[in-house]
Amino acid sequence: MAATPNADAIWTMVEGHGPDLCAMSDEIWETPELNYQETKSVARHKDMLAQKGFRVSENIGGIPTAVMGEAGDGGPVIAILGEYDALPGLSQEAGIAEQKPRNDSGNGHGCGHNLLGSGAMLAAIAVRDFLQSNNLPGRVRYYGCPAEEGGSAKGFMVRAGAFDDVDVAISWHPAPFAGVNNPISLACNELEFHFKGRAAHASSSPELGRSALDAVELMNVGANYMREHMPSTARLHYAVINAGGIAPNVVQANATVRYLIRARELDELIELVERVKKIAQGAALMTETSVEHVVVSGDANLIGNTPLEQLMYRKLEALGPPEFDEADRDFARKIQATLSEKDIRAAYARFGLKPRLDVPLCDTIFPPESGDGRHVGSTDVGTVSWVVPTVQMRGATYAIGTPGHSWQLVAQGKMPAAHKGMVHAAKVMAATASELFADPSLVAAAKADFAERREGRPFINPIPDDVNPPIPGYGEAAE
User: How confident is the model at residue 7 (pLDDT cuts 50, 70, 90)?
Assistant: First the structure.
């Protein structure tokens, strides 16, 4: 067995590049961009990769805002995954504990992806330094992945073969606590159901009309009745995105409802989607309308990997929690003052921890498999985990109780505590990757665990082959 890499050395390598990557994170925060529109963000990531000596590949999977940087030669390939997309409607001034939108695009980094991408790249740069200083074979890659927020870009990248030669994938996500991510997420599909009817005067000739809006409403009623007869861990959400117009005296000829369907396992999702489609067909039959469905996006559920999770937890234990100071805690308390006690208790519950209402920032490492998996969403990292052994951590970057996708989270995105949490996460990821390179038997163990978990579980990408991301000309230059 190879010697364990010197942890202090890899942590020092991370710290050496920390200021550059924290500055990049702040720049990404300043230019929040939505799904598949992350042109400024990806350009900054490309520049930093080139500046740090990586071989840069663009247009990964045919997506203009996806990038990959590689360093090293031969050996195993370890990928560190980053993101940089923002959310709409979350514009917010930085560093203040009151809601105050900026005079800008209206977007905001309400999920911390400015930190996620920069922290992942920081880890990759340190691993590159480690490989060089130890003259070890191996390639470290940074994947800049766009459109995680409902865009499922990694699913399209998987479909295009972007991860086919990767041995291990590592990632992280900003959170209120630090620890190894409990690998539970919900597989999901987002679909639009387009109903087409017949317009008519709603008063003088209602018998001639066939209301597409009626069909949407009946579909929603049917879906809500189905909730009683689906797995308790499944979820249904919907939004009417085209109600057919604003004139009540016109029978609505066209209407569209968008559904987000989630399930704990991929096979459960596939079955549930088919049931929702039948409900849509029934609604069309009842209203004498027609319906077509279009898949917008889809993510598989996460598959865990015990050897990788144990390795990452050892690195977390060795490093300890982030070292926040009193100024960090003081601002976190101000953020918590804008929240309710219920918000703070819910944050602890998601991680299976006993509430400590007097603690504003993380001061411990949560144990593996924390939380019961009831309070989870979906992520396109899940799709990657079906084709590559994958591990993720949660990095403590904001006040305990901060809701995801909130102005409070945006307000904390450039604070010193966010930077400290990001660097802390990068240290853990870099230390994990460096030991995988130093000890190939760990890679073999991860692959064996992956093969065992996948046995008898066929992978079906939730994104059908005929569905493309909303990118003009997509596929024409796909690699």
Answer: confident
What residues contact 295, with CB distance under 8 A and at least 6 apart? 189, 190, 191, 463, 464, 467
pLDDT digit string, tens, across residues 416-454 = 999 999 999 999 999 999 999 999 999 999 999 999 999
CB contact at 8 A, 432 and 317 = no
Whose structure tokens read 């990049």?
24
pLDDT tier at 1 (50, 70, 90 boundaries)?
A: very low
Distance, CA of 222 to CA of 215 (rounded, Å):
10
What token pair was written down for 113? 């992806």
Half-sphere exposure of residue 151, counting CA atoms within 13 Å on the CB side? 25
DSSP designation for 193: E
Backbone angles phi, psi at 382, to 5 degrees: -55, -40
User: 464, 40 in Cβ contact below 8 A?
Assistant: no
**Residue 245's pLDDT is what?**
96
Q: In what order do the strands lie in the sheet with 365-366?
A: 55-58, 67-73, 138-145, 77-83, 168-175, 390-396, 178-180, 365-366
Residue located via tokens 């609505």: 252
Share of the chain above pLDDT 70, in %: 98
Show the CA angle centred on residue 67, arms to residues 61 and 70, nearest 5°. 110
**What is the reported pTM?**
0.94
Task: Enter the DSSP assignment of 402.
Answer: P
Dump pLDDT digits (tens) for 125-139.
999 999 999 999 999
Tracing tokens 């009193």 back to the chain, one arrives at 326
Cα(432)–Cα(439) distance, integer angstroms:
11
Token pair, residue 215, equals: 């069909």
Q: Is 443 left (phi over 0), alpha (psi -120 to 50) or beta?
A: alpha
